[in-house]
Amino acid sequence: MAGNSFGKLFKLTTFGESHGVAIGGIIDGCPAGIKLDFDAIQTEMERRKPGQSKIVTQRKEPDQVEFYSGIFEGKTTGTPIGFVIHNTNQKSKDYSHIKDVYRPSHADYTYDKKYGVRDYRGGGRSSARETASRVVAGAIAKQFLSSLKINAFTSSVGDIALDKPYQDLDFDQIESNAIRCPDQETAEKMIKRINAIKKQGDTIGGVITCVIQNVPEGLGEPVFDKLHAELGKAMLSINAVKGFEYGSGFEGSKMLGSVHNDKFNKDGSTQTNRSGGVQGGISNGMDIYFNVAFKPVATTLQKQDTINSSGEAVEMQGKGRHDPCVVPRAVPIVEAMAALVMADYALLRRQESKDW
Amino acid sequence: MAGNSFGKLFKLTTFGESHGVAIGGIIDGCPAGIKLDFDAIQTEMERRKPGQSKIVTQRKEPDQVEFYSGIFEGKTTGTPIGFVIHNTNQKSKDYSHIKDVYRPSHADYTYDKKYGVRDYRGGGRSSARETASRVVAGAIAKQFLSSLKINAFTSSVGDIALDKPYQDLDFDQIESNAIRCPDQETAEKMIKRINAIKKQGDTIGGVITCVIQNVPEGLGEPVFDKLHAELGKAMLSINAVKGFEYGSGFEGSKMLGSVHNDKFNKDGSTQTNRSGGVQGGISNGMDIYFNVAFKPVATTLQKQDTINSSGEAVEMQGKGRHDPCVVPRAVPIVEAMAALVMADYALLRRQESKDW
Amino acid sequence: MAGNSFGKLFKLTTFGESHGVAIGGIIDGCPAGIKLDFDAIQTEMERRKPGQSKIVTQRKEPDQVEFYSGIFEGKTTGTPIGFVIHNTNQKSKDYSHIKDVYRPSHADYTYDKKYGVRDYRGGGRSSARETASRVVAGAIAKQFLSSLKINAFTSSVGDIALDKPYQDLDFDQIESNAIRCPDQETAEKMIKRINAIKKQGDTIGGVITCVIQNVPEGLGEPVFDKLHAELGKAMLSINAVKGFEYGSGFEGSKMLGSVHNDKFNKDGSTQTNRSGGVQGGISNGMDIYFNVAFKPVATTLQKQDTINSSGEAVEMQGKGRHDPCVVPRAVPIVEAMAALVMADYALLRRQESKDW
Amino acid sequence: MAGNSFGKLFKLTTFGESHGVAIGGIIDGCPAGIKLDFDAIQTEMERRKPGQSKIVTQRKEPDQVEFYSGIFEGKTTGTPIGFVIHNTNQKSKDYSHIKDVYRPSHADYTYDKKYGVRDYRGGGRSSARETASRVVAGAIAKQFLSSLKINAFTSSVGDIALDKPYQDLDFDQIESNAIRCPDQETAEKMIKRINAIKKQGDTIGGVITCVIQNVPEGLGEPVFDKLHAELGKAMLSINAVKGFEYGSGFEGSKMLGSVHNDKFNKDGSTQTNRSGGVQGGISNGMDIYFNVAFKPVATTLQKQDTINSSGEAVEMQGKGRHDPCVVPRAVPIVEAMAALVMADYALLRRQESKDW
């Protein structure tokens, strides 16, 4: 209830602070008999980890997952999968300067008000380091959902936006550049912008688009647990996310019904897909696609005026190695959360229908 | 699990199809001892009900709530509040023409694929009629949360947008016009546009903004159940919603960190509020505000080509009384869902802290 | 969270006080496409209702269920089934004498301490009248689980115990007498005892045995949600229940392992069934059987010394029409709760296994 | 949903197989600011661990808990407490003889039918080794609930029963003997019996009684989540448990209402306590007490006929170091589960009442 679990049938619970002994989690409800590809899991970890390119934080953390249970002779057993990632890069001394300081637009202040105590080292529980556990679970969910294709990519950095529809993109190009934008020309512009921002000690926001293909019809629960509502919650639970839209999104609110409606083909597919693959909260078999907006990283390397826990004005300055833009590392996190939602709804669908 | 419940501690479960005997719900977990103002509940119902103005559907439904339990001598007893709204306007014959037809961008097709059977009358369970139950529960949540101020209003219709910050608006003006926009000049433009659209038998989308004030610090759970993530899910679960953003939202993704960060005042409040009242998923005491995008209503009065359940091409035309724009009637629904989230998180907060 | 829901996937939420307008509930998660036998549902209601024989309370309540949603053309639609039973026998004046009195071994005192307010009429929410809603839901669960056989019967009243193993009983005889004991000779003794007790204005306890047959293997979740643990909770949630045991039960604790172990036959069935059809929390395909102990009804017609809400000594006397022994009317309730557990675990099983 | 979590607000999720890398769990929802006594936690582990006396299994496992998160400078932080106990005594070769064999009255057969794959080493997930994680969480729950007194003890072994009411016992004597029976004379008889049984290579069952004192009024949810129903489920989820009764229990079913009813004192306490501290599912401030029946351990050292996974008859014999009677080591597990239930219901109570 304290909010560290996600999913109903395919359920992830995570633990861990950025500078504690370890982070990790338990995946409960993963079906038995799935032969796991551990290299594929580690590959997802590499996509999220710090230090992978020049436009992300230069911290070094191996992010090696250890599985403690739920797997036997390479296959899932249906029992909970416990896993741990040790924090090898704990330099707690680095953080003494922020012990009593509330960093602007971080969670320091709200954690203190909520809990009274706080592991201030590196953001503690509020650090995006926690998302490494989501990537582990998402990687396993992807293997369970092997027939689905889940691709996320950077669609804007600041005001540099990819202006092609996703159908015109080659998803195989996503990993070909540091920003994870499948259009090379736009990618270069984005990277250039981030490098310029980084030199100023500043940060910048961006948008990630995610496309889920080969989705069967009938996934999603009506009323409160609509498929897109759960996807929205999943995305909004990622650190730094400020908005979510699917299908026609905010643009759709400007349209006329006669234009917006998706006409059916005889096979039940639709000629347009402003619905974004979901009608009435339930998948209709068309591609699901959505956008996720990320704010600029709150930690800049510029001096900032702020307060400490005694309400005194203090000056602070971010030190060391921080991401100038969160989106390239957030791409695998968006995919992981999408996979967790789809795995959960796939199991919900299975129990309602014998023949799925 | 089938998705007809919302909330963890303050929990609403709803039932009912638009043309069945009745709709209704159960509110479980409402604290005991709250003296209910039944007129205030009915007032919320009036704000949502059809036929209230010329720019909404002219259907007539009294939407009279009957409470069956959980209230004794005018006060909540802590036991579940069962309530029912009878469907008095059931003209089932009206709907024979859509029995086998899949209306474009409605949920007819997906319900059929999911369940195999479907109460096709008036959209059945997928009809926005279900939201009347949410308004009942939200009205009770508001009374529990009497110290909070929750105000939603129409901030755009099509491309006509209210371009003032919410701080410059007088929320007392929201109910003064049919579109529920507190700026009279913009309201008139919106109404005019809707009337024009209506004459064409067409529909149009819009955006609702919601502001929650007097929020205590410390509401919201870290990681997966962040306060804004739950608000997002709540809004995305409303019929026709395509997007959600809070605080700086999608615009925030275009900004630099040095500009976006909210500087602290000595009392812990912030000079700007791009965070939208939530940091790290937890309320910081500033106003919470967010935008909700609605697509145009899928039922137009124009002829549309579509298919039936046998995959044959058919022509259909919406009949009778439909909303040309959903936003004015959705304003109280947005408020209701916001109230349900806040009530739930208030109870979660109470159990963690003795002195809230 | 306030405890008025049961089940995870096949989920019942109930509302209602014994002397409010109505009681009822919502069944969420019942699979679509089940053709309902409404007579069978009403038959279960008749088995539970007051006034059905001379050894139960002579109150008259028709207990007519009205279904408001979730059913279309006689079949379940997969959407929530809302139902209501109006309280036709509300004589609130009858209860003024207990308004401020705490009846011994009732829930009056604890409800007051917990909630501060209380609908004192007829026990309010704590009345066993609430179980009528369970019987409705259980009757539907039975129809979903049509291949299972669920039979409960009275196995003891006071110290009069049925001393035959259930395998020697003819379950078709259960409904042939007022006490619902399939052995006529024992039934007569039980009825005679109850009549004698009744004349004294006293009450007596008893035990109900339940047998579930044709259970597939693999139902039940390991560790915390063991099948028998959920059955135990289901039974212990019924008013007046004091104990639960399954398979060898408390007697099993006196045995040696070499005697207690169930030897396998080659087909995986076992020669004995001290396990009670469940091993490690998971069904093994053998009959599930368990005992449920009921205390004597707390309302006697004798004078009792007690206190009122001001802590003053008062004398009270139960009036009118009360059950001298709860077990005959509790038999269908035990079956209903067993059916709810089995339906829920059947759905849990379906999502884990495609071929169930 | 797969059943590896317990509790709603104070929630434990466990993972781990008996011969995997490690077992462990996540406690989510433990309030912030609790100063932990780590020695007290380890003491509970010592009470459960193998090898502690001559009447339990002679396996050696240090059972050292490592905490990975949720604790900072010795205090809980409100974030999830992740913990791990490494399995140091993994001799997997020991178990090759049972790889394909279904041990009678174990969970081998049902796990195979449910999951298709199974970690057969030492029982895997179905091993009582999992309960070590429960003891860790229970020890923390006890510290949160420091005002409550939770004492469990052995009240029978086979047919040797402690025949004193718990009020006549000195709970300080529980740890003074190997069987954990506070009456020394009875304890000696029990130990003698177990030693005799052990020599025969056999096993025996028993009963544990648990008493919870200093319970505030008002804990427990009406209807489905009655306090005793949750306690019952908690106990029935422990390996080898066959029955649960509270207050007057099964004996209560033989009594008359006039005798069974608990008369009130003027202060709201009762003269007798057949209710077992719970009325209508809610605590009344009197002692809560209940009995838990354990079957004899299924693994005996005698030869047994059984089958393998091909349905062939095979002979098997338990090897090495097994418990002849599970009850002495189960005493701390019963206390741990009781503490988890009470902690969860204490938090549920806090959210409903500001002044608890």
Describe this structure as you would to a colleague.
- Four copies of one chain form a homotetramer.
- Chain A has eight helices and 17 strands.
- Chain A is of the alpha+beta class and 356 residues long.
- In chain A, the strands form five sheets. Chain A has a five-stranded antiparallel β-sheet, with helices on one face. A five-stranded antiparallel β-sheet of chain A has the order 10-9-11-15-12.
- In chain A, a hairpin with a 6-residue loop joins strand 2 and strand 3.
- The longest helix of chain A has 26 residues, at 327-352.
- The mean pLDDT of chain A is 94.
- At the C-D interface, strand 1, helix 2, helix 5, strand 12 and helix 6 of C face strand 1, helix 2, helix 5, strand 12 and helix 6 of D.
From the structure provided, what is the oligomeric state, counting identical versus distinct chains? homotetramer
Total of helices of chain A: 8
The SSE string of chain A, one letter per element, is EEEHEEEEEHHEEHEHEHHEEEEEH
Strand order of the largest sheet of chain A: 1-2-3-7-4
Unreliable stretches of chain A: none
User: Which architecture of chain A does the CATH hierarchy give at level 2?
Assistant: 4-Layer Sandwich
The CATH topology of chain A turns out to be Chorismate synthase, AroC fold
* Text of the CATH class of chain A: Alpha Beta
